[in-house]
## 1
Amino acid sequence: MLSQHDNELITKTGPGTPMGEYLRRYWVPALLSRELPEPDCPPVRLKIMCEELVAFRDTNGDVGIVDNYCPHRRASLFFGRNEECGIRCVYHGWKFDINGDCVDMPSEPAESNFKDKVKIKAYPAEDWGGFIWVYMGPAELKPELPEVGYALVPEHHRLVSRRLQENNYVQGIEGGIDSSHISFLHFGLPPVRRDDPNNKTLSNRDGAPHFIVKTTDYGFVYGANREAGDDKYYWRLTPFMLPFFTIIPGGDGNPDERTYSGHGWVPADDENCWMFTYSWNASRPLREGEGHSASHLELEPRTMRSVVNKDNDYGIDREMQRTQTFTGIKDISVQDASIQESMGPICDRTREHLGTTDAPIIAMRRMYLKACRDLMEGVEPDVPRSGSTFRVRSVAEVLDKSVTFDETTERVPVAV
Amino acid sequence: MLSQHDNELITKTGPGTPMGEYLRRYWVPALLSRELPEPDCPPVRLKIMCEELVAFRDTNGDVGIVDNYCPHRRASLFFGRNEECGIRCVYHGWKFDINGDCVDMPSEPAESNFKDKVKIKAYPAEDWGGFIWVYMGPAELKPELPEVGYALVPEHHRLVSRRLQENNYVQGIEGGIDSSHISFLHFGLPPVRRDDPNNKTLSNRDGAPHFIVKTTDYGFVYGANREAGDDKYYWRLTPFMLPFFTIIPGGDGNPDERTYSGHGWVPADDENCWMFTYSWNASRPLREGEGHSASHLELEPRTMRSVVNKDNDYGIDREMQRTQTFTGIKDISVQDASIQESMGPICDRTREHLGTTDAPIIAMRRMYLKACRDLMEGVEPDVPRSGSTFRVRSVAEVLDKSVTFDETTERVPVAV
Amino acid sequence: MLSQHDNELITKTGPGTPMGEYLRRYWVPALLSRELPEPDCPPVRLKIMCEELVAFRDTNGDVGIVDNYCPHRRASLFFGRNEECGIRCVYHGWKFDINGDCVDMPSEPAESNFKDKVKIKAYPAEDWGGFIWVYMGPAELKPELPEVGYALVPEHHRLVSRRLQENNYVQGIEGGIDSSHISFLHFGLPPVRRDDPNNKTLSNRDGAPHFIVKTTDYGFVYGANREAGDDKYYWRLTPFMLPFFTIIPGGDGNPDERTYSGHGWVPADDENCWMFTYSWNASRPLREGEGHSASHLELEPRTMRSVVNKDNDYGIDREMQRTQTFTGIKDISVQDASIQESMGPICDRTREHLGTTDAPIIAMRRMYLKACRDLMEGVEPDVPRSGSTFRVRSVAEVLDKSVTFDETTERVPVAV
């Protein structure tokens, strides 16, 4: 349970809010690289942490992310022309490069130096791992790009996507670091009982895993162990990578050859977020249809919501729910969206009742609240500056019960 | 005319508002019995007096009406599974019975007693007269179910329905206790004149009826008499049954054999209400197509608005309005909706000009305001506790002018 | 740049706001005459300066513009019956004439004099130049109707229209008195350069015209001169006629025989406006397809927005934008709408950077702010009372550079 004050602290991310300032100290995904497919292609509009922006790829292939509003008379640069190394407002022809400098002002007399005095807000942007990343914080605090697994593999080894979710970003994160819900929301029938002998799926078998959280330099890793029979535990270790990324445990075989997937939840505004999804395999290209189901969803073209969404009750099929799956909702990613959106635009955490399986959620909130309080007191919060900090993966292994959590993280290391 | 303060008092019904607290001292219709057709059928979502709720019929056939939000992490129970005597949240499997007790918490260790500490808000609900009724007030003040006519007849003797109306509930009531408007809104052309010899319809013949209001134990009854020729009055006696029900006068023949209809207006939130409609005949089953026109309207499946609504100007046909009917709008119930919604979400009663025909409206508001003021002063308002109080019907009779209002109510009793 | 305070002053026009009171001292277009095609035709609903109104043409052909809400119980008169010299509410039959007097009250007893005490808000309205004009200010300050060119010609010499634009009215005006943008927003490729020898269009040839503003009795006229080669200037003189009208310079040949067009922007509410468009030729009837493109747009029937609007990104064609026109948007009027709406519902003028070509905009704002401040201090602002003040037109001429602005206005007079 959070106080209303703390709930607002972690959920509000507009300019000047403590949480917004904290998140702006990280590189965050803004859009997919393929949404700006080539130099001088059409610009794309964006909303990140309540800021309206326009992204464009210039003639050199570099990406600019600038204010949506032309500083002259506030026309939208989304309608602008992406021309020779700059975006030109169609209202009076003012043109800006990716650094925000005004490089042409044809509506003013040639002898005027007004052009040199006008800048547009522009944020550093980088193509990295299939995403366009943006850094919206103080220039002097800009960290290295995170060396996430999917950025370190060839392009055909990864699959990336994004979609809009109609809820505050924290609800997305709280679903992502909640190993417990996979035993319910994502599983088939019959209802989950620890002692059901017909239950073959490891994560289905024990709905009440034990949780252990361990703070790391990239955020934290938490382990959830479930009874797996024969004096063994089924361990799932999930890294929470600041500011809001996860890697889902799964797969079997050699950990170096598995396909991993994960999500990041980027605030659009306080009541909507972008779920970015990445899947990758370090050892081979991904196969057709492989990768997280979220990356295979059909989206509405303008909103980028799933076509199966709250307006159609996520396509819930009550007969299927009664007889085949726990939810009657087809896609894992839509199951997540249905539940996270069902809490309302901003979950009222003053009325929740957290249990033992919510330990990672509590850990995440404490990290966020500490960073917020630091910023409010003028203390610079601790932010990983080195990209190599983020060279991590998840773990899903069956191990003897005698293996401790610490030993687990050593035997099958999360950090790689 | 009301002050802005009093207008807000009677129109706001959220938890903690005086009017909301007063209405919560009555059983109110929540949905139709047939919307929960059988044990363990899919749950239905509800909004009543600004509270978001979920209704389900359990394995025993009993109905539970509980908070929409699971107390664990606030996922919506609408997506829940209606299982063996309880509704189970699909996020982590917490299950609640119709009393709000948590009867299973599979995400917590078996030895945990957390389950016993968690409850969900649950309201008493009863199947009665074709409606599911809910009582949302203090347990110790719960009255008997009202012995309304349609609840005392076999199922085939009644017809019930509900639809959404996009205005505050008081506008609905004020249309329901306004005998005067039937001479205009619901009638055909030519325009209504008291002295028109071609005017055959009794209620059409005299657009300026005289009103008399008499307080009763169930609320009040008002009589409206119109000139009926031959030294007679056409009397219409309408009961206003607390907190917001009416029975429309009509029909002829033996009062015990007439088909009666009426409405109740249940606040959804402060700008929308549910109009519940009931028709019944104590002496025989209803015939095909019989009963109030509101129960035969085609509704939009998700919103439960009429498909003929404000977005299409209620299908107004100006040529029909010019030559055939007063409004050019086809259905009586849509005529009511058009006018009540046209006042805006909450009618600005500081700018109205009430006339003599608005006497019942004034009586209703006084009752409401008195109850609100009682509650604000810590005085428990007078609420009928006995179900038999509501054994009433309406009256429509032509009587000699010499018969007084009091005699009228004796000769053709409203109370039955 | 404006302060937030001044931006609100000029953009808010509801009853009681300084700018709203100032605008209410002028006749403003309310709808097209053809929208009330004949006596006793269906009423039309309107929203002007945040006031909800209903317009009807009575049996004599006179137009009434009255409050949307019947003073009895606040039903909308839009659903009313337009009967023998009055509009009758369908709820209880109260009837009002164009002066706002209640002329029938059939729901009250015949002997009642309540009718004489009830009035509805009614504004003077006039058919003039193809528009219905309304005067919403103090009766004693009502000026003459403006003798605008299109009102002084036979009906077939003019073309009028209106459409909704989803932004504050000031953004419309600021586009209308901005001669500079036509060199960009409305022109073809290649990009505009002053020195491009292939550039044949006069207004395209010089993107940085010089501006001169001259205050007049009707508002102001501004001249914009562009290099036209051979020691000549291309002059465009645009009158700004209070409170919010313009005439676009254009055409060639004898100024008395040109077809002129212009716009006025009437606030609907603070975030939407009605763009009224007029085209006329004093010397001959307009030809098929002639007149401003805004008058040939297809509109959505209920909203009266262009069917090409923000919901479909104004039909922008990025390939056309890359190779053919500056915007990739087809219609001049839609180009204007796209840019004006893209600034948001109310442009944030605290963040703009005005240049030399924005001189007329600055002049307009100063006039508005002075009028607002006068009203706030109890000083009656200067408003032209004589209709003949508005007998003006625009000028588009190529003249020797030796001709001064003042000489220009004498040689090709704006006032006619």
## 2
Amino acid sequence: MKHNRILSVALGDERADLVLKNAQYLNVFTCEFLRGDIAVTGGRIAGIGSYRGKEEVDCTGKTVVPGLIDGHIHLESSLISPAQFARAAVAHGTTALVTDPHEIANVCGESGIQYMLRATRSLPLDVYFMVSSCVPCSPFDENGCTLGVETIRSFLTQERVLGLAEMMNYPGVVAGDREALEKIECALAQGGVVDGHAPTLSGKQLNAYVACGISSDHETTTLAEALEKLRLGQWIMIREGTAAKNLRALLPLLEENTFRRCLFCCDDIHPGELMAQGHIDRIVRSAIAQGVKPERAYCCASYHAALRFGLAGIGAIAPGYAADLTLLDDVSKAEVAAVYKRGRLVAQGGALTVPLEEETLANRKAVLGTVRLKDFSVQSLDTHGRPLPVIGLVPHQLVTTKEGTASAAGDGLLKLAVIERHKATGHIGICYLKGYGLRSGAVATTVAHDSHNIIVTGTNDGDMARAVLRLQETGGGMVLADHGEIVCELPLPLAGLMCDLDAETAQQRLTDLKQAAYALGVSDGVDPFMTLSFMSLPVIPHIKLTTLGAVDVDAFRLLP
Amino acid sequence: MKHNRILSVALGDERADLVLKNAQYLNVFTCEFLRGDIAVTGGRIAGIGSYRGKEEVDCTGKTVVPGLIDGHIHLESSLISPAQFARAAVAHGTTALVTDPHEIANVCGESGIQYMLRATRSLPLDVYFMVSSCVPCSPFDENGCTLGVETIRSFLTQERVLGLAEMMNYPGVVAGDREALEKIECALAQGGVVDGHAPTLSGKQLNAYVACGISSDHETTTLAEALEKLRLGQWIMIREGTAAKNLRALLPLLEENTFRRCLFCCDDIHPGELMAQGHIDRIVRSAIAQGVKPERAYCCASYHAALRFGLAGIGAIAPGYAADLTLLDDVSKAEVAAVYKRGRLVAQGGALTVPLEEETLANRKAVLGTVRLKDFSVQSLDTHGRPLPVIGLVPHQLVTTKEGTASAAGDGLLKLAVIERHKATGHIGICYLKGYGLRSGAVATTVAHDSHNIIVTGTNDGDMARAVLRLQETGGGMVLADHGEIVCELPLPLAGLMCDLDAETAQQRLTDLKQAAYALGVSDGVDPFMTLSFMSLPVIPHIKLTTLGAVDVDAFRLLP
């Protein structure tokens, strides 16, 4: 009988495998800190009280909280492989996350998602999946693959798949788009949940969106917006990512009557921020520093995510729950001393204590060699002085502003191009960019949401072309060219999205790239690569650029 | 597309089927009362805001709350058929309940549960089932049927079945009883939940019980007990039934940090209490009168039950949720003005507004004619002056006290007998009863938890035998005999548990029976029949009587 050992340990008849002695621990059910020994056996919590174990860890002065959970992330956006992400995140107290493999699905489709499922199978971190709902994300875009209803249905029956990922096509849903609604119904019919993505949606349109069964949102940037969504029954995922930081605006939500419907997520995070500041612990730390009660912050960082996704058996410190435990030196500062996954010590003092399995080349084959251009040269960027729309950047935000049109770069305006790279169609969209700040050279990347074509901006066509051609050589990545030379780069051979490097090395390369970019004039408040990578995402207001040209997101149409 | 109509209604493009205009309504997510029109279409809520409908109901001055939900009831204990129960409960604002068909399962087994599923299929009330876990409830008892693991498994896959009902064999679970653990694992493996029943269980034993996956309790009678269970992750079902009333003791649980893990239940309720005082509305009313915030009381009375059982789509007033709505004249007094089930008016002014389907005889056949005795006569009750245990009654409680032994009735002591009635084994358990108060005659019933043999108590063997033989004639029921005559009775032909009568008539008969019983001396604070019916339940401390004799519940053994 499976139960027999946990019973005898709970009863105190047998010694536990592990006892965290004299711990202060978070009780998520009452949202309070309590004291007791936590007895663990077979990877699960057997009891809380006074216990003896084969291994005993004195936790006097320390606090145990449930392992932290990221409710919504695109792992690929960290630029490192899932294993390297796990190494960094687990050391920061994370024991589970819910990823939407939207980026790799846009490049490699089904086989990209299968790669991510394989690559996360045996990590010291539970990786759950939401099936990407909008691949491609827009009819005004060209990506590598299309995920239809039947493919989505086939993933929904797989282990670790919890539902349908952020339904970004909110205008489509509200307008009754047949395919969008079919995907939602398919997920709900299979008992899955459906995540939302509906920035600024409100009133009757929001009612309509929610009525379809879309039960969360992570795109909320104001308190009023969050309150409206929460009152309509949506879980609010408070996002603190590298490109978008919403915690400060949503802080009042972490009060008595609303915090129980909130959880935390990163959405997109770069390895530098992950290494230096942390993962979900970083959000907890920031919330507490801004006055949120620690017990509430930790509930949002663990239990509430488990509740939102119906993950029975994780996210709480109670008998029968998985022993996914984060031990803190300082509860207010979210200082992680050690992390236990299913009762096994997996991180201590900021470093992983267990080996990570090496990925085989065979495992990766499906996601290598994904940059395919058609006859690209510097002439491809010539616009012959045509007037084209201008996209205005807003520091620290993903939303952009419409800034009229221009006919040439210069005077703070840069040329911006998005070059199709999946099927070698030769399509190139071109417009202008304001507020980026670059004064010389060009910046290019194959990380360009959501279709991950090549996005490039620069002061001159020559450097822009040089950078693009370098990406073709390396199979994707990030690159900076100036005066005809490659100044700095980070190759991302895995689908043009992730590198082969450990997080520290990737971080150093990225830091070098950013420093070089800032040296060439990129503005403060703009992340040279991440901000750029969102300029081609035509589902966030108000104007974006795709391979087919500039898109008015509000009107959901291509600009002339 | 299913979604199209709800979308256009939500958007205000089409008129709703029904709009509750200008309503104050309960928002369960923020636990606050808000204002807005509630638009309903196709039985679901399309939106909240400003809406027009084909039918509009002005709710100015009224309050709309989600339809009330009883988290744990044994429908059979109401003594009326499921349809008649629905008629009374819906008028009191109930739109869903979770029943454990434990009583009828003990009499008729599988076919009893199937009868209950059939009889609740088309009521204006959602009836969900938990499969009875302990049939029979104890090895020291004789019932009509046994529900094994395989039978339980077969029910768990049926629609409306949510998991395994109260695991009363808590000593068995804690001791590692193979069958009890198999039943629990079977339910959890199929995605069901498991309800608990563990009065006074505490400390390491409670840890063990909870570690097996038992996630609720409704047997909690003190605040300390409730807090301990709640902190270990159990949902607390606050019970106010006809025999057990725990609200007053557990009232402090309805505070900020604990009320969100509480729901309400009746467990067992007689038709008189149901008609006169109400169902879940009665508990809400009482909680508010004792100082609980109305919004919290209504959340416990609706949403929290839906959460506990994972009933997605009911229990809240928000887009996409079922339009199960209870309209209140007075929110503090829980005065129900009207009830909507899937958007349809089903009750108004305390009366059902829709017809109830008549049950066919064919539908009932499996549960008729269930009283089978072997050669019973007055001699069967003769104890020949043997010393036998004395059970002490505690007013308003199901627990009893051990009161030593006695050799004869008299001086406040009554003879108590439990007579096997399913398989005509001829087994009779006899002891004495203190505190019941009867001064003349005998009281007998086939409603005798949990095996529903005949339980009879009286001042003399002659009246006791007369009462028992009358139950044999009527196919079960409740009866009072005095001086050799049947004074009063309520026949219960459906499994010896439920009558063919409407709730009012059943109530009148029961009132007559009780009055007659009190006239014959039954003590205040004792319900002549319901209290008696629990004297044979050997899973509630401290001493009970079965067909095999008196049982020491604490020691889990038969007394000599």
